[in-house]
Write a structure and sequence with these properties.
The complex is a heterodimer of chains A (329) and B (318). By secondary structure, chain A is an alpha/beta fold. Chain A has 12 helices and 12 strands. Chain B is globular, with a radius of gyration of 20 Å. In chain B, the strands form 2 sheets. In chain B, strands 6-7-8-3-9-10-12-11 form an 8-stranded mixed sheet, sandwiched between helices. By secondary structure, chain B is an alpha/beta fold. Chain B has a domain of 186 residues: 3-Layer(aba) Sandwich (Rossmann fold). The chains are: A alpha/beta (329), B alpha/beta (318).
């Protein structure tokens, strides 16, 4: 991929600690385990996974809302893996976050104007007048116009789609270089989803913003990202240019995922979908080797359950971590 | 073949402080025994209200509730509330409400919860009911010994299956499912849809299922009903509908679906569905419709189409 590198994540690990019982038996939930990814300036990358695959933790760790256990996050040429205080604050200003549930993400007692001014005040950006101007500009950017109609309203007075626009406006108000959007449209009506994603796309192009979409919905992200990564049980298992991965999936999990998704078609009711047995593993004690092997029809005994698969390149940009493919290519 | 369910001019209005909400406004459709109908449309178009009207699960602020609902030719609207509760609801028509998986009682074992409708609505002993509950778990692919587990011990997909088992335990003829898989993961959803394809055949169920996901609607639907602002604007068999729907709203709805297997840039419908308190006169979709013309100011006719009917001036034969 050509273009200027914005984000480079290598070997990222983030384990959640849980304590069970009085005498402190410690357990780790290995939510993000050895993840590598890159993002160019102005690029949209999608991370696709089921619930519990660790995709939200991955997003929050990249934003440094969690402290990584291991690995490196290089953002815009700087190592931000373990930065603190002033530097972390600066990093917050350069990144934005769009949550899944817009209503839950907006404080109910603050007006839209207060909500959008808050990040500017925290980062001491501009004078009072300049801040208001920025609020106007951000609201125009997300097409909540005429701005006067919205600026003094409270979140509960807006529809779900409008609330999500406010969340997006807040995420871009400090002029960030990177925005992570965690299921930005899954709570919205299907007819509004495309509208919100088009809006994010136009902002992304206009400001050369790097966006990471975290989603479970392959068909929606197909139209709004140039590359996708598939995540399963805390690990990325396949990645590449969006259409390449969707039309030529290699990893058995990716294949199942694509096969399970219907397109509108009257014949669907006569066919059954091929679904893998079982459920995703517990991340406290995940399977050794490839984490998908207990559900995999192509499982090679003595290899998949023993050794973790490494990168195999299908072509220059499309990679997969799968022993079966590596052995049978 | 005679009709199993016939709904004619069904109305359900609610009274609120802001005015009368016309949630179901003159809805008519018919289904044969064993047919599955997908009820699609944006939120706030009255889909859930229609299901509640068929089940006669009415809130206290109901203002107007009238029309005809025939089951095998018998007008059940004429039944008293007591008779409807005893003979129809959960005996002949059952229901999987929205987010049912989160509505299970956390302190009652799932077996007892599945058995409950059977004990209440039929003269079944507790032992027999529990036996039936175990059988139902098997039908929805949960190990039968799970009857002694509590809801929190089950995954989301399993809890949704329990809610489905609960609706099926009384051997109903008609099941209404409100967004049965929308909160579930892709693979779990595919699994449950696979199971529903078997179950509906095995039990010869007539099915109404509400969804806003048009792709998922095609997994079961023989018929598709599109609801907009309290009205069914198009009713069609699945073949004609997914090939080319007739109503402009249905078309836009279908083209807003991002497709995985073919490349077609999804579009979106500008604006929002109108308020059901004060819906537009004439065609209710006219403000968002790209084909609007003078005639749309008047109430559109119901025109028969290849697959069923649609309410639109454009389709009128000139």
């Amino acid at each position: 991929m050509s273009g200027e590198r914005l984000l480079e994540v290598t070997g990222l690990k983030m384990y959640h600690v849980i304590r069970k019982g009085l005498f402190g038996g410690k357990f780790y939930i290995k939510a993000v385990d050895n993840v590598d990814l890159t993002l160019d300036r102005g690029e949209a990358l999608a991370i696709i996974g089921e619930s519990g695959s660790g995709k939200t933790t991955l997003g929050k760790t990249i934003l440094r809302l969690y402290e990584p256990l291991d690995g490196k996050i290089i953002f815009d040429g700087r190592d931000v893996t373990h930065i603190r205080r002033g530097e972390l604050k600066k990093y917050r200003r350069e990144t934005g976050f769009v949550q899944q549930d817009p209503y839950g993400a907006l404080p109910p007692f603050m007006s839209i104007r207060q909500i959008l001014e808050e990040p500017l005040k925290i980062h001491k950006i501009g004078t009072k007048e300049e801040r208001l101007e920025k609020v106007y500009k951000a609201l125009e950017e997300v097409r909540l116009t005429p701005v006067e109609d919205f600026i003094n309203k409270y979140p509960h007075m807006l529809s779900g789609g409008q609330q999500q626009r406010v969340v997006i406006a807040r995420s871009i108000i400090t002029d960030p270089k990177l925005v992570i959007a965690d299921e930005p449209v899954s709570m919205l009506d299907a007819s509004v989803r495309v509208e919100i994603l088009r809006l994010m796309e136009s902002i992304q192009k206009k400001y050369k913003l790097g966006i990471i979409y975290i989603s479970h919905d392959l068909s929606t992200t197909k139209y709004f990202s140039s590359r996708i990564n598939i995540m399963y049980a805390g690990k990325l298992v396949e990645g590449g240019p969006t259409r390449e991965v969707i039309y030529n999936p290699i990893h058995p999990y990716t294949r199942y995922l694509i096969n399970a998704l219907p397109d509108p078609d009257a014949n669907n009711r006569f066919v059954k979908r091929d679904v893998p047995p079982g459920e995703p593993p517990s991340l406290i004690n995940p399977p050794t080797g490839c984490r998908f092997y207990p559900r995999c029809p192509l499982f090679i005994k003595g290899l998949c359950d023993v050794k973790e698969p490494g990168y195999t390149y299908v072509n220059e940009n499309h990679w997969v971590k799968c022993w079966y493919y590596e052995e049978n290519r | 073949m005679s009709m199993h369910l016939e709904v004619e001019n069904l109305y359900l209005y609610y009274k609120t402080l802001k005015g009368i909400v016309k949630a179901v406004d003159g809805v008519s459709f018919q289904l044969k025994r064993g047919e599955a109908m997908a009820l699609i449309g944006e939120s706030g178009c009255g889909k859930s209200s229609l299901s509640r009207a068929i089940l006669r699960l009415l809130p206290r602020n109901t203002y107007k509730y009238e029309g005809v609902i025939k089951l095998d030719g018998e007008n059940v609207m004429e039944y008293s509330d007591e008779k409807f509760r005893r003979d129809i609801r959960w005996v002949k028509i059952s229901y999987v409400p929205q987010a049912a998986m989160n509505a299970l009682n956390p302190v009652i074992k799932v077996g007892d919860q599945i058995a409950e409708p059977l004990i209440i609505h039929t003269n079944t002993s507790k032992e027999e009911a529990l036996e039936k509950a175990a059988k139902m778990l098997d039908i929805v692919n949960i190990p039968a010994d799970f009857i002694n587990r509590y809801p929190f011990e089950l995954s989301g997909g399993m809890r949704q299956r329990v809610a489905i088992a609960m609706a099926l335990v009384t051997d109903p003829e008609l099941v209404i499912m409100d967004e049965p898989t929308s909160a579930l993961d892709v693979l779990t959803q595919a699994n449950i849809m696979n199971e529903m394809k078997d179950i509906r055949k095995k039990m010869n169920l007539t099915l109404i299922y509400i969804t806003h996901d048009i792709s998922v609607s095609s997994e079961l639907a023989d018929k598709v009903a599109v609801m907009y602002a309290g009205e069914i604007v198009e009713f069609s068999d699945a073949e004609s509908f997914f090939k080319e729907p007739s109503h402009p709203y249905s078309k836009l709805l279908l083209y807003s679906v991002p497709t995985l297997r073919v490349d077609r840039e999804p579009i979106y419908i500008k604006g929002q569905p109108p308020s059901l308190i004060d819906p537009p006169t004439g065609c209710r979709f006219k403000d968002r419709c790209p084909y609007r013309f003078e005639k749309c100011e008047e109430k559109p006719p119901t025109v028969s189409t290849n697959g069923g009917f649609a309410k639109c001036w454009l389709l009128e034969k000139r």
